[in-house]
Write a structure and sequence with these properties.
By secondary structure, the protein is α+β, with helices and mostly antiparallel strands. The protein contains two helices and 13 strands. This is Protein COBRA.
Length: 266
């Protein structure tokens, strides 16, 4: 009887051990997946992209896109941010203010009025300081440089305006772009899908009237040092610029670099 009880107990223990190992494995996998875009220095920080449709046009709309840097310590320095996405339909960008696409794409089917960009997956950058006033909008033209939220909330944003054609002209026919990408200025950011939310409200300069966007969607991008590094090294600093901190990413290769043994800790 005792031997039978021991055999049954051993069998149950073996199954439980196997189940425990499987459970731990699944938890570890889910943990790595969820922390791919996690910054231990600022776990609640993110960059939010707000896309506000301000007015409708005969074949699309005019929108203002604003990039908010809600990270507490990580600023965006020169050469600045680069924002990309993929159109859901066959949209084109007729014109832009406060920003520009890096490539025009194939606009050969258009005659007369040529769009600013015909690419399915445009890439946008900020304009430089000194841009003529008739090409500027508010919060633009800083060369893509954005302060961190803790450093200065008033300069922790950047905006540009674009006129989109071959798009929907109502809330029901417009399709949100997909596959958003952000470099600020290098890799490390993962952007989620665009989510339609409540239209943004705006207060006029005299503070006597409130207007609102026709349609608004938001995209949230989070930073991960693991994604930013080509090799899984530990950075000793949150700064990008090596003139500020001379050894931000070399902590993993100092042991193989005999010429700079004094610049890093092995």
């Amino acid at each position: 009887m005792e031997s039978l009880r021991g055999s049954v107990t051993g069998s149950i223990t073996s199954k439980l051990s196997g189940f425990t190992i499987l459970l731990l494995f699944l938890l570890s996998c889910s943990t790595f997946t969820s922390t791919e875009a996690y910054d231990a220095l600022d776990p609640n920080g993110n960059i939010t992209i707000k896309w506000d449709i301000m007015s409708w046009t005969p074949d699309g709309y005019v929108a203002v896109v604003t990039i908010f840097n809600f990270q507490q310590y990580r600023h965006i320095q020169a050469p600045g941010w680069t924002l990309g996405w993929t159109w859901a339909k066959k949209e084109v960008i007729w014109s832009m203010m406060g920003g520009q696409t890096t490539e025009q794409g194939d606009c050969s089917k258009y005659k007369g009025n040529i769009p600013h960009c015909c690419k399915k997956d445009p890439t946008v950058v900020d304009l430089l300081p000194g841009t003529p006033y008739n090409q500027q909008i508010e919060n633009c033209c800083k060369g893509g440089v954005i302060s961190s939220w803790a450093q200065d909330p008033t300069t922790a944003l950047s905006s540009f305006q674009l006129s989109v054609g071959a798009a929907g002209t109502t809330n029901k026919t417009v399709r949100v772009p997909k596959n958003f990408t952000l470099k600020a200025p290098g890799p490390g950011y993962t952007c989620g899908p665009a989510k339609v939310g409540k239209p943004t409200k705006f207060i006029t300069s005299d503070k006597r009237r409130v207007t609102q966007a026709m349609m608004t969607w938001n995209v949230t991008c989070t930073y991960s040092q693991f994604l930013a590094q080509k090799t899984p090294c530990v950075s000793l600093s949150s700064f990008y610029n090596e003139t500020i901190v001379s050894c931000p990413t070399r902590a993993c290769d100092c042991q193989n670099n005999g010429t700079e043994s004094g610049s890093c800790i092995k």
